[in-house]
Design a protein that fits this description.
It is a single chain. The protein is 38% helix and 18% strand. It is α/β, with parallel strands linked by helices. It folds into 2 domains: 61-297, P-loop containing nucleotide triphosphate hydrolases (Rossmann fold); 303-402, no CATH class. It has an 8-stranded mixed β-sheet with strand order 3-10-4-9-8-5-7-6, sandwiched between helices. Helix 4 (117-126) packs parallel to helix 5 and helix 5 (144-155) crosses helix 6. Residues 1-7, 13-46, 66-72, 384-389 and 391-398 have low confidence and may be disordered.
Length: 405
């Protein structure tokens, strides 16, 4: 189909769209065996463990960014309280939470008019006095990041220049996303500061972190707390572990997270969030969060009517590339994002599209933190300097007209 008329393919798919569901395509890769014979294999089966881990983290970040724009969500909340005899509270407005004026102003400045389903039930627990521990199952796009950010900002004393809230994320990119929410919600606290404990962010030996909130990946945070003594873990009031299911899929992150948690004071509030509650995630959560309240959020999704989705059957990457060329030849696209299974494929596709005269920016997980900043790729996208981006990770999706996978 890659060499057929693109318009014809679109017409055929629109006619059949209502009858299609649960479509799963297996990508076949053609390669010679030891005797030179052609053998077809499933490309997905050839992924390394490292690529699988990167895929899971990238998928989580992608879900976080686009689900709220591409799907309608309906949520069912199940709350299991630590004390079953305690009354169960929920809120329908942010005013009911009695937030500090600056914090309430920040919430409304972000465009939140009323709490989401998970916020209605989680916020009264997280903002209770004394603070309560929480394990929450919630997928991206349900408002859980704003919920735990609100909990952190409620506990922070801006006048104290030392870390009071600590948030662990499995990747640098996910840490940045959380940081953006903190900066937006806390913008009416001029004295509030945020630090990133991530690879590439180096401090001088003997230096102490003065920012009140620290977000980082487990390995770097562990070094800052134990080896380098940049952070005094005994002063942490709120500990958040985000994307727990992604965290335990990355080698070393689970043990590092547990070691960090054991350094914290007993009265520190522990909050853990995960999109899934598999046995491995649940065992990990029980080690990190003692005596928790539990919230389970089940979600059903429906694709928005305004988003049209199509697929093209291709046998190999050359046919996929030809399909992309047909697409760009048939319609006008200002900006697009194209996702690839591996960094190698992303590099190959970026080079091929550049040969065709397209302006292309390449971004993948292998790039150093400094390299990402020096390239300033994401700012260039927002300023319309690039028409498309081949990448494995994601950031803001404003103005993107097309997404290819």
């Amino acid at each position: 189909m890659a060499t057929d008329s693109w318009a014809l393919a679109v017409d055929e798919q629109e006619a059949a769209a209502e009858s299609l569901s649960n479509l799963h395509l297996k990508e076949e890769k053609i390669k010679p065996d030891a005797n030179g014979a052609v053998v077809k294999t499933n490309a997905n089966a050839e992924k390394t463990d490292e690529e699988e881990k990167e895929d899971r983290a990238a998928q989580s970040l992608l879900n976080k960014l686009i689900r709220s724009n591409l799907v309608d969500n309906t949520n069912q909340v199940e709350v299991l309280q630590r004390d079953p005899t305690s009354p169960l509270y929920s809120v329908k407005s942010f005013e009911e939470l009695r937030l500090k004026p600056q914090l309430l102003q920040g919430v409304y400045a972000m465009g939140f008019n009323r709490p989401s389903k998970i916020q209605e039930n989680a916020l009264p627990l997280m903002l209770a006095e004394p603070p309560q521990n929480l394990i929450a199952q919630s997928q991206s796009g349900t408002g859980k990041t704003a919920a735990f950010v609100l909990a952190m900002l409620s506990q922070v004393e801006p006048a104290n220049s030392y870390p009071q809230c600590l948030c662990l994320s499995p990747t640098y990119e996910l840490a940045l996303q959380t940081g953006k929410v903190i900066e937006q919600m806390g913008k009416f606290y001029p004295e509030l500061k945020l630090a990133y404990a991530v690879r590439g962010n180096k401090l001088d030996r003997g230096q102490k972190v003065s920012e009140q909130i620290v977000i980082g990946t487990p390995g770097t945070v562990l070094d800052w707390c134990s080896k380098l003594k940049f952070i005094d873990p005994k002063k942490i009031k709120v500990f958040v572990l985000d994307e727990a299911d992604v965290m335990i899929a990355t080698q070393g992150h689970q043990d590092q997270s547990i070691r960090i948690q054991r350094m914290l004071p007993r009265n520190c509030q522990m909050l853990l969030f995960s999109a899934t509650f598999e046995d491995s995630v649940w065992k990990f959560a029980q080690k990190v969060v003692p005596d928790p309240n539990i919230i389970k959020l089940k979600r059903e999704e429906e694709t928005l009517d305004t988003i049209k989705q199509y697929y093209v059957v291709c046998n190999n990457r050359e046919e996929k590339f030809q399909a992309l060329c047909n697409l760009y030849g048939a319609i006008t696209i200002a900006q697009a994002m194209i996702f690839c299974h591996t960094r190698k494929t992303a590099g190959w596709l970026a080079a091929e599209l550049s040969k065709e005269g397209h302006q292309v920016a390449l971004l993948s997980g292998e790039m150093m933190v400094e390299h990402k900043h020096s390239m300033n790729i994401l700012n260039r996208i927002q300023e319309h300097f690039n028409k498309k981006i081949e990448r494995l990770d994601t950031d803001d999706l404003d103005e993107i007209e097309k997404i290819a996978n």
